[in-house]
Amino acid sequence: MSIAAASLCGRWRAVTQTALQRPTMRSTLFVCVGGSPNRMRDFAIFIHQELGLDGDGSDIADICAGTDRYSMYKAGPVLSISHGMGIPSISIMLHELIKLLHHAKCRDVTIIRIGTSGGIGIEPGTVVITDIAVDAFFRPQFEQVILDKVVIRNTQLDQKLAESLLRCSKEIDDFPTLIGHTMCTYDFYEGQGRLDGALCSFSKEEKCEYLQKAYIARVRNIEMESSVFAAMCHLCGLKAAVVCVTLLDRLQGDQITHSHGVLTEFQKRPQKLISSFIRKQLQMC
Ligand code: R2B
Ligand code: URA
After folding, report:
1. What is the pTM of this model?
2. Is 70 exceeded by the pLDDT of residue 1?
3. Would the ipTM clear 0.85, i.e. be above it?
């Protein structure tokens, strides 16, 4: 399926011109997306510095500042965009981003979601590179309701890209990383088998049984955006990866217990890996 040739609204026309300028200027473009606007600003500054661009990057401007929906920063060939939490939020952003890339005639785009997740049976701080996103029944698919029909979409991510990222991770000291399935849910509490939400209708034993089943189905982490991200990128022909650090092991509990400092370091891990990967790719061009 080709990218929809929908017309750009004025907002996006302006963004296209400022963010990407003339499409022929760049043959390689990296788009990094993540939930939090602050984290994506930090990532833009970090990648600005890592790529040795002019200045320290601290004056980087939010290209989408007027919209209040998401933030977008550009550092050289890298766009850094926030997508909020959950499937509906990232899906809106991706529709608008993919139209932007299409109208700007961007080619050779690599898009990577960086984020946080709950691990299953792995050490907190481990970075999981997703091979395929699965739903809450461990099925490798995303169900999109279109008009009155359920359309099943493929959630396979780019295997070569995942393997390149894994190779890259091996060159960084003390950087536990693996490739595995990622379960994408519609909810953080009951939807991820947590006992500590405002509502809970199952026992601790049922929760443990479900998470054990997920582990046996090769799920190594849980988050809330990977399935629609994988499905949309796959259909639109974008090379895509999902790289999430795990903040806790869900087989051990529901709440994050590490100190603020440790969690801050964990959250930088996907950024560190992607920065190293992008630098390598640019050296090869
Ligand atoms: C990871 O963390 C968020 C929930 O706390 C959600 O956006 C996700 O995928
Ligand atoms: N994000 C999630 O969606 N789940 C977790 O357990 C942690 C982060």
Report:
1. 0.92
2. no
3. yes
